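Support request, please re-run this one:
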Amino acid sequence: MTDESIVEGRAHSGDLSLDADVVVVGSGAGGAVVAAELAEAGQRVVILEEGPHVPPERYSRMRPSENMRHMWRDGGLTFAVGLGDTPVINVMMGQCVGGSSVLTGGVCFRIPDSVMHEWVTEHGLDDINPKRMEPVFEEVERRIHVEEVPASMRSRSTQHFLNGLDALGLGWQPMRRNTKGCNGCGRCNFGCPHGAKLSVDVSYLPRAFAAGARLYSDCRVEQVTSKSGRANGVTGRLLGGAGRKPRGRLTVRARRVVVAAGAYASPLLLMQSGVGRRSGQVGRNLTVHPGFRVMARFKDPVQGWKGALQSAYSDAFERDRITMTSLFIPPGALAGTLPGIGLAHQRVAESIPNLAVFGGMIHDEGGGRIHQVFGRTLMTYRMAPKDRAAIPVLMRGMAEVFFAGGAEEVYLPVLGLGSVDRDRLARIDLEHVPATALESASQHPLGTCRMGVAPHGSVVDPFGQAWDLPELYVADGSILPTSLGVNPQLSIMSMALRIAWHLREKKLPS
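Re-run finished. Output below.
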């Protein structure tokens, strides 16, 4: 990655006008893949990124709080408002060159066969099946070096939970991640400080730049433009100064437009551009994999920050559409999630070296929406009844696993509950905990520009082209027809590669 390949919009004075064969909006898991493939095919590619350019040598020195201010959308404080008996969900998304890819734990799952079967049988997407997708998965996995996390890299936090699963006769599997030379420092969610995670900023984007693509950061795209019935570019503003305020105007003229701004921003751009009105589906069908963490205190030190952030998972509760995944939180951030005030909180925080953490997420049906109200963006989410019913199953089940692994007490994601020992767990009526008392988070928003085979129920066709505007494509997590039940990074990259291969063979309009 060279200085000439990236132009920081905040350092550019005046307006910016560009020409390209293809303009790609977004530099994350979807946009970077498309940009690299098309640039290597000889097309003139311009990549636009709303977030800042924070190179690895800079984010490797950032404290977690500083990282969140500079590299996460809304400082990591974007929320989906819960409707009905649904908790408020903190939906965390990257906003930087490389997108959320820079800030994930590196976990790589293929689209599950059961999910692809659903897409074929219920959504008519016949070509997205295990046989057709195999070479796509293999190509992405090769490019980002997907490997199984070795047992030696597991943290004691993870191992305690796995011990509990073993004691209960429940299965688990090692995770696969896009890493090479990982040393287990546990800082994956803030950008790998050692360059061992092959996020797109160090894998796909350098390929795009080597082939002549240029990236412009600090560029907020506000509209897709069209002429003679097809997309022909984008317009927007350069961001800079205090508060990243809009400054100069941005215009890119292109023969093809690829929107890859993520499941939050892509539907907003389509709405602002008047695209997708026929179906009424833009911004709808949001899924998030609602997540809930359970912490446990052990008698002996755990030091859960030592080792891979995520190294194992379990689908032992798959019948309830729950996937359990290992994780840990940097001690400084972890302290803020612990119960108590004042001295009571201090006593709990002092036990951080003895805490283990595991997370559970729900393979949700989706009841969310991204929309604009009085000029402001609002994300709402209503859990399906069976998804809501899975929450107490998740909390109780994970607590029991920790106790089977030797935990003395657990901390459930319930506000005001405090510590829970085994006897108290048996007495708590988790099925009737109100949604307002539940703590939930997500890093997996999907589905808001869903793919389909007909305009009336989807936003884009099976190769990502908008039904009502030729030469406008969407290539990110927003096109996935359903949630996955697993971390979506590899799935998004693979769907983007499938679209890129299609575009590589499709002649550019004159």
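The longest strand covers residues 245-259. The radius of gyration is 22 Å.
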